Amino acid sequence: MIESLISVLLFTTPLAIAAVGETVNQRAGQINIGLEGMMLVAAYVAAIVAIETGSPVLGIGAAIAAMIPLWLIQNFLTIQAGRDQVVVGTALNLCAIGLTSTLYQMRFGQSGQLLSVPQLPRWGGIDGMVLFGLLLVPVLGWWLFRSRWGLVLRAAGEYPDSVRSSGFSVARIRWEAAAVGAVMAALAGAHLSIGVGGTFVQEMTSGRGFVAVALVSFGRWRPAWVLAACLLVGGAEFLKFYYQVRQTALPYQLFLALPYLVALGVLVIVGKNSRAPAALAQPFRSNQ
């Protein structure tokens, strides 16, 4: 029982860190469809640096550094230039898949190989990233709903004109929120390769970025509820691997689809009654 719970926490952590970071982003009015691509790039960079240096901690640092150009490009286009956030995020995902696949094949060959990546040290089956993810939820929850910065950030996602009239820069707030989301995407992607899997394979994120974006609405843009949603999907992902290694009469494809079916189910049941930030995905220009 304890081992199963630990496994659920390990599977949940990348999804939860990414989704909580995306909650901050969306609260400011930005939706990051490119989260999938960011996580994939982070997973690849963390794995390669960890292999080369033997240090998973340096792998995490490299993954965060790799997010800087992606953060700059994406948010220049969406915040400064006012381009469609969904289109820009989709383009980022396509570029990330192509870039990581090309670099992987150049380094390890067309067929690739099973990589052995140095993993984060574990205590009782739990690594430091799991503990960080659990601590992140109350910290960001307090920051969003109890601090002055959180009040202004939430206002930027609801009433950007009022925020500007109060003397704040909507663009700056959204840049800051996007930076939080980018760092969380880096940590989430890195944990996939050097925490959960101990390896890297092409497109290993397998839609987790999209699921994280969707679960933000299920959690009603509140970190604690977002974590609860991630635990539900993380539990389904654990069951996917648990039953794959056991002989059952059910087709294995059902277990492969289980986490996504759970995510879709909770969105259908709960998502229809949720209310997104009023200015979500709407570009804002200071000269409007």
Q: Which labels suit this protein?
A:
288 residues; two-stranded antiparallel sheet; 11 helices; 73% helix; 1% strand; globular
**Broad shape:** globular
- Contiguous low-pLDDT stretches (5 residues minimum) are none
Number of strands: 2
CA distance, first residue to last residue? 57 Å
Rounded to an integer in angstroms, the radius of gyration calculated over CA atoms is 19 Å
Sheet of most strands: 2 strands, antiparallel
Q: How many helices does DSSP assign?
A: 11
Q: What oligomeric assembly is this protein in?
A: single chain
Q: Strands of the largest sheet, in order across it?
A: 1-2
Strand content: under 5%
Instruction: Classify the helix fraction into a percent range.
Output: over 70%
Order of helices and strands: HHHHEEHHHHHHH
Which structural class is indicated by helix and strand composition? mainly alpha
Short description:
This protein is mainly alpha-helical and 288 residues long. The protein has helices at 2-27, 35-53, 56-80, 85-108, 128-146, 148-158, 160-165, 170-197, 208-218, 223-244, 252-270; strands at 122-123, 126-127.
